Structures are given as structure tokens and as C-alpha cells.
Amino acid sequence: MFRQILCPTDFSKYSDIIMNYAESLAERFDSHIYLLHCIEILLPDPEYTAAYADFEQLYQAMEKNSHIKLNQIQKRFESKNIPVTSKIIIGKPFVEIIKYAKGVSADLIIMGTHGASALSHILFGSTADKVVRKAPCPVMTVKHPDHTFILP
After folding, report:
1. Domains along the chain?
2. How far apart, in whole angstroms, are the C-alpha atoms of residue 130 and residue 95?
3. CA-to-CA distance for 125 and 39, rounded, in angstroms?
């Protein structure tokens, strides 16, 4: 049923919870997990970039750090003998998630309802909202355990 599962990650604190769902489904359905991290091109805080000669150097550092984090997640699945592929892409997250899902013929996308940055949600809308509307397959969204829904 879910042979190809795409798990986009932003390495936020609750990514582990999302990976728990992916692991459980992969074991149940003998699935291949596709891990995806998208580095969004934004204009960073000048104070943060002061140590970098240019933006290219900044993105290289971000990509190197992302590879380390993605590798740790990949090892988790490999230790359970779950087939896993990981990729880092530079671009707009919801666009890249949808393109990648099509490219690997994903049967399911599992992702968090909110990303690491609350500000980006306010300014641009939720990546998850956009993926749910445009995805070529079902999308399972996982709510952050600390967020509660309050009826108006």
C-alpha cells in the first residue's frame, strides 16, 4: 500500500516523532523511506552572515550541516533494515517536496504541520498546507505534541 514514503524534514525538535510514524509504517508495509531536506533561499540576518565571505559559502556550510543531520536520521532507518534514500535540495520547500514526491512516485508523504520557524508560517503560510493541496499522493500531517487545538 505505502511502498514509497517521503519524509521531508526541517530537523525541528519534533522531527523524531514524525520519523517514528515513518518507521512504523515502513516496517508494516515493507516501505522504502525517502528523506528530504530543503534549504530555502532566504536573505539571512546580516549579523549571522558576517563570518561568511558570501552567500555561497553560507549555503555550503548549511548544506554540510544538513548532510550531517540527515545522515543521523538515515542511520536510524538503516539500523532497522529499512531501505532509505536521502537528499538535500536548495529551493522553496513545498515546491521541492511536490517535485520530489512525483519523481520517486511517493505513495505517502509524512510531515509536520508546522516547521521550525513560526515566522515563516506567518509570512508565507504553512508548507504542509501547500503540500496537502498540491501533492500527487496522500499526505499524513503530524501535529506538534505541545500544540493544542482550542475551539473558538
Report:
1. 4-142 (3.40.50.620)
2. 9
3. 17
